[in-house]
Amino acid sequence: RLMVELRSTAKTYLNGHNALLDVNLAVKQGEFLFITGPSGSGKSTLLKLLYGEELPTQGEVIVDGCDVACLRGDRLSLFRRRIGIVFQDYKLIPQRTVAENVTVVLQAQGYTRKEIQRRLEPTLKLVGLLNKADCFPEKLSGGEQQRVSIARAIIATPPLLLADEPTGNLDPDNSWQIMQIFQKLNSFGATVIVTTHDEQLVRRCGHRVVQVHNGRLHQITE
Ligand code: ADP
Ligand code: ADP
């Protein structure tokens, strides 16, 4: 079963820029995929197509059986709940504690307090932040802040996890820690797609790699 399928997909932005050209990609359920390529090559655009932040100008984007381009409004919101997303810059709320940052989305989605409590501890434990639950983001290192954002992305156990340059602001040790968390989630069954230009990290992990170059996708390994 495929989790992600792009068929002859292209994205031209409104200013005429061709960010992606004739991209074909299939990612199986349970796979771990790296997307590499230089800055500006189209990696973020590819991920944005997967979570419906941008629409393709040609071709199809099928995620978890849904044609993403056909989703609007409530159906798009429900679809996005099945995707965890991690960004380079963490996007934490400064005035909220770690626990609040991780659970704010569940609250908005109407999970009960009991269910939120049930999920919080194992999630913080998985990212190694159980002892930081009541801290505010500014007191944390970059690596810890990124682990908070991962906890937020996975607390609802989405089957697909997307990460856009998640280690772009981190040193090699912290980057490796982050990758180990992604690998653990993958071993629990999540499909994981990570963009990065850190070739060394990619080699060290040994998963399938595709490269985007000038908007075109090249298969590097199977
Ligand atoms: P990467 O993630 O590999 O750095 P992006 O997908 O962010 O690449 O960008 C690919 C290209 O598309 C870049 O040239 C970028 O400037 C351009 N681009 C990205 N977003 C937009 C947008 N909203 N409008 C116009 N051009 C964009
Ligand atoms: P990223 O590196 O994560 O793609 P960027 O800093 O490139 O982020 O882009 C930040 C925002 O600006 C995104 O929403 C992107 O779509 C938009 N953007 C990027 N490049 C351009 C561009 N050339 N023209 C218009 N918008 C752009």
TrEMBL record:
ABC transporter domain mapped to chain residues: 4-220
Main location: membrane
Keyword terms of this UniProt record: ATP-binding, Cell cycle, Cell division, Cell membrane, Hydrolase, Membrane, Nucleotide-binding, Transport
Places the protein is found: Cell membrane
Record GO terms (molecular function): ATP binding; ATP hydrolysis activity; transmembrane transporter activity
Alphabetical list of Pfam families matching this protein: ABC_tran
GO-annotated cellular components: plasma membrane
InterPro entries from the UniProt entry: AAA+_ATPase (IPR003593), ABC_transporter-like_ATP-bd (IPR003439), ABC_transporter-like_CS (IPR017871), ABC_transpr_LolD-like (IPR015854), Cell_div_FtsE (IPR005286), MacB-like_ATP-bd (IPR017911), P-loop_NTPase (IPR027417)
Any GO BP annotation: cell division
Claim: Metal-binding is one of the keywords in the record: no
UniProt membrane topology term: Peripheral membrane protein
Assembly description: Homodimer. Forms a membrane-associated complex with FtsX.
Function recorded in the entry: Part of the ABC transporter FtsEX involved in cellular division.
Family: Belongs to the ABC transporter superfamily.
Name under which the protein is recorded: Cell division ATP-binding protein FtsE
Organism: Fischerella thermalis JSC-11
Gene: ftsE
